[in-house]
Amino acid sequence: MDKLNVICVDDQREVLSAVLHDLEPLSEWLNIEDCESADEVLALMDELDSEGECIAVLVSDHVMPGKTGVELLTEVSQDRRFSVTKKVLLTGQATHTDTIQAINSAGINQYFEKPWQAEVLVESITRLVTEYIFDAGLDYTPYHGFLDPQVVLERLR
């Protein structure tokens, strides 16, 4: 069974803690990692990749010191190793232009404004991980009870 990782990054510890708390129900079948900067995320992704682990989803805040979330997600989208990693922008401060840039250059799969609804976040991450499993060509059967049934049905047609 491949080890699936979801990485969450936000420079505000209280926001990051809230995201981790909301994603806790998924920790039964996913490894949820947290980082406080874009550089920390990139180092973690390199480490996980070198250990043969899968990075299914990257959830990033937008306004962070150093690199913005859009810059981080764009960089990740251009790295072949993470071509099927799903990308989520979670922010309360992105402008309309930032959002369009994230969609166009970073290829984000989901956008959430703060404050988000926990149930919607969990459903979205479940859907994105399910899509990742199929896009990466992984065996979905070990995760079958956790996956988004609608995506499974669509992908098995």
Automatic annotation (TrEMBL):
Q: Which lineage do the record's taxonomy fields give for this organism?
A: Bacteria, Pseudomonadati, Pseudomonadota, Gammaproteobacteria, Vibrionales
The record's section on Pfam families has: Response_reg
Q: What is this protein called?
A: Response regulator
Q: Does the keyword tRNA processing apply?
A: no
Which residues are in the Response regulatory domain? 5-129
Q: Which SMART domains match?
A: REC
Q: Which GO terms describe its biological process?
A: phosphorelay signal transduction system
What keywords are assigned to this protein?
Phosphoprotein
Organism whose genome encodes this protein? Vibrio marinisediminis
4-aspartylphosphate modified-residue sites: D61
Highest taxon listed in the record's lineage: Bacteria
| Family matches, as PANTHER family | RESPONSE REGULATORY DOMAIN-CONTAINING PROTEIN (PTHR44591:SF3), STRESS RESPONSE REGULATOR PROTEIN 1 (PTHR44591)
